[in-house]
DNA/RNA-binding protein Alba-like domain-containing protein (Dendrobium thyrsiflorum), 130 residues
Amino acid sequence: MEGVTQAVNGLSLNNSRKRYRIQVSNTKKPLFFYVNLAKRHMQLHNEIELSALGMAIATTVSIAEILKNSGLATVKQIMTSTVDIQDESRARPLQKAKIAILLGKTEEFDELMAAAAAEVRGGVQGDEHN
């Protein structure tokens, strides 16, 4: 019985770490809205998951590449699948491609974000003096 209790306690510890998920749409918000949202949430969480269906997959890959190429994130995992979407006009469910990209902070993340914030503050102060 003690072994079962330890196993259950171990499961609850592993499941307590939840990922922060951003569901990307290519019609609702512009690309850099999601880039900035990802940056803000990476300040709070060590890793985030970008998720998208269908045509939004290209937008999601672009977001991940922007974050990766700017030195803010590393790609930890890429998961692909298909999901069944029920369409009222069709009798059968429609299958859509799905992607989930797990991103983690780089070691330089905090330094890069602080430098970017200082640059913005410097630009705002410079504008006030003109």
Summary: The first strand starts at residue 20 and ends at 23. The CA atoms of residues 102 and 120 lie 28 Å apart.
